[in-house]
Amino acid sequence: MRRMMSKQEAKRLVDMMPDNATWDDLIHEIYVREAIERGLADSKAGRTKDVIEVRRKSKLPE
After folding, report:
1. pTM of the prediction?
2. Which of 5, 46, 51, 61 is 20 to 30 A from 19 in CA distance terms?
3. Distances from the Cα of 47 to the Cαs of 8, 28, 52, in angstroms?
């Protein structure tokens, strides 16, 4: 489930961007932040897998 971003959080994110930031830069920052927050929520809820398990399943070297 996606968490809503508050106006304060959005403003803070825009304020931290450099003056010459593009829309693409802002979209990237939003995407990265959302990915990190989802990963942290998954970790907290125990929805993670061990790296070794994933590598074995994907036939990647350990």
Report:
1. 0.70
2. 5
3. 29, 25, 15
